[in-house]
Amino acid sequence: MVKDILRITAIYYPMGYRELYEHLYNEDPRNRKQLNKNSLQATLSRMKKNGLLKNHSKEWSPTPEGEELLRSRNSDIRRFFPATKHRVRNSQKNLIIIFDVPEKKRRYREWLRSELVGFGFTLIQKSVWLGPSLPKEFIEYLSEVGILKYVKFFRATEKDLI
Length: 162
Known about the structure:
- The structure is a single chain.
- By secondary structure, the chain is of the alpha+beta class.
- The chain has 2 domains: 2-73, Winged helix-like DNA-binding domain superfamily/Winged helix DNA-binding domain (Arc Repressor Mutant, subunit A, Orthogonal Bundle), CATH 1.10.10; 95-155, Alpha-Beta Plaits (2-Layer Sandwich), CATH 3.30.70.
- Helix content is 45%, strand content 17%.
- It is built from 7 helices and 7 strands; from the N terminus they run H-E-H-H-H-E-E-H-E-H-E-E-H-E.
- The strands form 2 sheets. A 4-stranded antiparallel beta sheet has the order 5-6-4-7, with no helix packed on it. A 3-stranded antiparallel beta sheet has the order 1-3-2.
- Strand 5 and strand 6 form a beta hairpin.
- Helix 1 (2-12) runs parallel beside helix 6.
């Protein structure tokens, strides 16, 4: 859960406790079984004590040490966007991405989520995202690391979106 908290706060920082809880709860079904408000609060407190997170005006964000830990965990995976910046593109959101990356490739699944946020995608429900078109290099990289076969792309026109 520490890695998930660092990843989410690095992408969306600063964020309040309620937002963080909702992201963790909705993102991964395994978190639902172990995530209660007391365990999240204890984990946040422990991470703050260990210098990985800081809390300013009830908003959580990673410290430089937390960001470094996050970067070092998957240093061999190519980053299209820095893990600590949340970029939103203004282009039309008409691409739906659905993925089911197996557990043995979990680190690529986590990487994919953070990259989609960087491209301006929004989470619709677990592993279903809506956003703009993706660059060809990104799709090629998905194939290169062996996860393209777990990802489905659907294009929707403005008329199709309700």
